[in-house]
Amino acid sequence: MQSTNTLLKRIVRSSVLPLAAQHGMKKDLFPLSRTLSLSFCLKQDKSCSPSEKLDLDAWKKVMKSGLQEEVSEMVSEHKELSSLAGAREILEMWRLAGRSVPENITEDQLKGFMECPSKSAQKKYLKFLYLKELYKKNDKRKMDKKRERRLETEERACKTDGTKRNSFICLWTNCMDRAYSWRVAQSMIFGQPLVFDMSYEKDMSVREVANTVRQLVLSEGCNRRSVDPFHIHFCNLKNDSLYQKEFIKHYREAWGKLLVTATEQCYTEIFPKDKLIYLTADSPKVMKTFDHNKIYIVGSMVDRSIKTGVSLARAKRLGLETAALPLEKYLLWNTGAKNLTLDQMMHILLTLKDTGDWKKALEFVPKRKYTGFVSKPVHELKKTLSLINTLKLGKAQEEVRKQFAKNYSKKLMQK
User: Fold this and answer.
1) Residue 283 and residue 162: Cα distance in Å, rounded?
2) What would the mean pLDDT of 38-45 be, rounded to a whole number?
3) What CA dihedral angle connects 398, 402, 408 and 412, to 10 degrees?
4) 196 forms bridges with which residues in the sheet?
């Protein structure tokens, strides 16, 4: 009781005194009688009469009842928590003693355990929870084992498929490599020689030399996979040159085992001059057919600046026959130079050697350089192309019509 009285005094002081200080109630705050005048209520609400009094005894009773309810709730919560903690300790002791108690138990399950009317009911309830937890663990263990088995079978299947594929691919590549090597070895004895002139290192930059060697590597691979390969000669290839360094970068250890002839000698020292034909785009002579008895020379040069006449001048100095591919005869040439890459030249020469068909061979020319194959005589196609060009340039349509009418009347008169 004393504690409740002191608590009520503190509440009154903390609640009423600030209001009294705020509204000027300094003297006679608590009169001798057990009543309190409602001055604050009168100030705020004019409807309140000054005769209305607040009974402090009734207010004390209300406050005591609220406080007792709060204290009882706190005591009940404390008891509940202490009982839960005690129940957990009991379960832990039973688990250590070897009884069938679940490892993980929720608060609801713990409350159910505490609500059991007897000890035997508690034991049965705990056994039920223990078996339930055990079944869940067994199910989880089975699922994990199944997952592991499935993953193992998938890995084994992937490994077996991979080994089968890898073994088949390795066997196939080994067989094909042997077949290609056998063909190239035969071409080194019986095949037609094809010469790559490697004397243009001074006319190119380091980057252009690297591009040249890259194209030569592609050419060698294309020749190696063909049905009737050439016997490739890299002539004028000096030791420790940029060409050789780039070849070693690409081939590495296979450079010494490569089935080609690499020599520092000039082709004029190896072959007779009357059999040599230098293929250059600057030649005035156009190649008509592929001659199997001749030895064709291709300049190993990539010139981005398009240095015209370099290979032609070299062929003339050596007194060799020259030839150019008949590009204008079979192709409607669009724009750009008529220089082709080395791998494109190799494809064209191999197709000509196997089939002798210029249309099939010239399909390896980049399509951006021509509009189509020739289907009419060249002079008529030139006229149509000139008409197209004039229309593109935007000349007067009347002049074009007059020119067309004159040509048409001449054709009618000839007929």
Assistant:
1) 54
2) 43
3) 140
4) 234, 298
Cα–Cα dist 80/200, whole Å: 99
Q: Name which of 226, 260, 228, 227 is nearest 243 in CA terms.
A: 260
For all residues of the chain together, what is the average pLDDT? 76
Looking at the chain, the domain(s) classified CATH 3.40.1280.30 span 169-373
Calculate Rg over the CA atoms of the chain.
Answer: 53
Which of 251, 254, 181 is CA-nearest to residue 223?
Answer: 181
Residue 378 has pLDDT above 60, yes or no: no
Q: What integer is the mean pLDDT of 361-385?
A: 73
pLDDT tens, position by position, 237-265: 998 889 999 999 988 888 888 889 999 99
Residues 6+ apart with CB under 8 A from 181: 259
What's the CATH class of domain 169-373?
Answer: alpha beta
Task: State the pairing for strand pair 276-279/321-323.
Answer: parallel
pLDDT at position 151: 85
State mean pLDDT over 59-80: 56
Between helix 107-115 and helix 56-96 the angle, nearest 10°, is 90
- pLDDT per position as a tens digit, 199-249: 988 888 888 899 999 999 999 989 988 888 999 999 999 988 899 999 999
Q: What is the DSSP string of 154-186?
A: HHHHHHHHHHHHHHHHHHHHHHHHHHHHHHHHH
d(CA 223, CA 342): 12
Rounded to whole angstroms, the Cα distance separating 326 from 293 reads: 20
Strand positions, DSSP E, 33-176:
35-37, 53-55
State whether the Cα torsion 129-130-135-136 is positive or negative.
positive
Residues 66, 93 contacting (CB under 8 angstroms): no
